[in-house]
Amino acid sequence: MAAEAPTILATSIGFSSGGRGDLDWRPGPVYRFAAELAGAARAPRLCFVSTATGDQRDYLAATYAAFAGSDLRVSHLALFPMPNVEDVRAHLLGQDVIWVAGGSVVNLMAVWRAHGLDRILWECWQAGVVLGGCSAGSLCWHLGGTTDSFGPELRSFTDGLGWLPYSNGVHYDAESQRRPLLHRLVKDEVLPGGYATDNGVGLVYRGTELVEAVSEVDGAAAYLVTLADGVVRESRIEPRRLTDR
User: In the chain, what are the domain boundaries?
Assistant: First the structure.
């Protein structure tokens, strides 16, 4: 199946802890929701792309373990030290959902472009494969946002794919530097206005239009950040609560 229109699910939603160590993860309902956006009712195919973490083996192992009890048919695309599948394009076009993990968005973009993955992902998007992700996997689809790719002090990131012609703020309620820096970047017109998400919240785009915000947690929100007459304004967007089915 395929989404009815090019669809991106850009989030600040990660795995929850299973309580048995740093890599004991549990997937929330956002992954099933992504499959629904793709129109995949049974055994949806979901490919994880963990370029932003350097395709660490422990991360990939924990990801597979997290989905062990689900009906999602999980695969992954690794680019370090070389692609793990013979035909990257065919593999990605055969998915219902491509989910991009967090990490360094700056490194992610450099590696993707070196491998031509930006062109392949564009083709997937247009073909109805739902593109999603968390943190770096949210920023990458936008023009840019705030990033810790360069160190603990956040800096601007302006080299995203730009398919979504907005700025993007992730972890908006969880990291104190995020909100003021995004506001400053928009005020100084380093970035255009855009959308931000608290932890646990995602943005659903059909084409380039935001159609809905969703959340896995109570009390969190999304935000529209705009610039008018030299003043940055922020409007809260109440998300729809996702629940496990």
Answer: 7-241
pTM of the predicted protein model: 0.97
DSSP 145-157: EEE-TT-SS-EEE
pLDDT of residue 141: 98
Question: What's the helix, strand, coil split of the chain in %, to 5?
Answer: 25, 30, 45
CB atoms within 10 A of CB 5: 14
Q: Which of 76, 91, 142, 171 is catalytic?
A: 171
Which of the four CATH numbers 3.40.50.10210, 3.30.2000.30, 3.10.580.10, 3.40.50.880 does domain 7-241 have?
3.40.50.880
Catalytic residue among 12, 104, 135, 149: 135
171 catalytic residue (yes or no): yes
**Catalytic residue flag (residue 135):** yes
Are 170 and 196 in contact by the 8 Å Cβ rule? The answer is yes
H or E segment and range at residue 135: none
Q: β-pairing, 231-237 with 222-228?
A: antiparallel
Instruction: Give tens-digit pLDDT for 111-159.
Output: 999 999 999 999 999 999 999 999 999 999 999 999 999 999 999 999 9
Mean pLDDT of 162-182: 97
